[in-house]
Design goal:
- The protein is α/β, with parallel strands linked by helices.
- It is 46% helix and 17% strand.
- The protein has a 7-stranded parallel sheet, with helices on both faces.
- Helix 4 packs parallel to helix 5.
- The model has no long low-confidence stretch (mean pLDDT 94).
């Protein structure tokens, strides 16, 4: 039976990914830091092993990794978002928190679980379509996700000799507890189930880049072709209205 480990599994995209992989017959390691939420989400399913650890704590990860033998897929999905509301008083502690949760945690999970991935297996790293063009107040979030972009692409080069693939996953707006906190328009927002289907299909197909939804991604790619000064002027006007 094929197996997958998914972090950030207790809600949002991660929760839907667990259910999608189970539906396709995988043995799933569902990882989260809150045991109560994991039990609420999945109960006592025979093909879901609940792993409780904090992705920012390397010692916890190493201990839990002893329970995992072999993986066909490893999806590093856990993350958070905080915005810089007062840019003139740059909050370095906020910046460090977001980098720690979104970027360093992936490095910790790779140290704990990458060696478990079988040849011809695949690693999925969940970044964001926000790296296509820069957005206001997203200095910490965007920097952390841009770091994941480079990490995934570089990792893909070095893991090729081991026959392990890497998928860089760049979702648009997905209806999750994280985006529920946003107070701005989120065009093309999709359900976590739709996101999970796109990720699952892309991973199984061996795609190096998984982006969705199509129309939002296309729009961002077109905007990225414009001179940066044009984009900065446009998004500044939108933000200051």
């Amino acid at each position: 039976m094929k197996s997958v480990l998914i972090t950030g599994a207790s809600s949002g995209i991660g929760k839907s990914l667990v259910k999608r992989y189970v539906a396709d017959g995988y043995q799933v390691y569902a990882a989260g830091r809150n045991s109560h939420k994991l039990v609420q989400a999945f109960g006592d399913h025979p093909r879901i092993t609940q792993l409780v650890f904090d992705v920012t704590q390397l010692d916890q990860i190493k201990t839990i990794a002893e329970q995992v033998t072999e993986l066909d897929h490893l999806i590093l999905n856990a993350g958070d978002c905080e915005y810089m509301d007062d840019i003139l008083h740059f909050d370095s502690q906020l910046f460090a928190r977001v980098i720690n949760v979104n970027l360093l945690s992936v490095a910790y999970c790779l140290e704990g679980f990458l060696a478990k991935v079988l040849p011809f297996g695949r690693v999925g790293i969940v970044s964001s379509s926000a790296t296509i063009v820069p957005f206001p107040k997203a200095q910490a979030y965007g920097a952390s996700k841009a770091g994941l972009d480079y990490l995934a692409r570089s990792l893909s080069i070095d893991l090729a000799q081991h026959n392990i693939g890497v998928s860089l996953i760049q979702p648009g707006f997905v209806q999750t507890p994280l985006t529920d906190k946003n107070d701005f328009a989120m065009p093309g927002r999709i359900s976590p189930q739709q996101a999970a289907n796109s990720i699952f299909n892309g991973m199984v197909a061996g795609k190096h880049l998984i982006r969705f939804p199509f129309l939002l991604i296309l729009s961002l790619q077109v905007l990225a072709l414009l001179p940066f000064s044009w984009w900065r002027a446009y998004i500044s006007r939108k933000t200051n209205k």
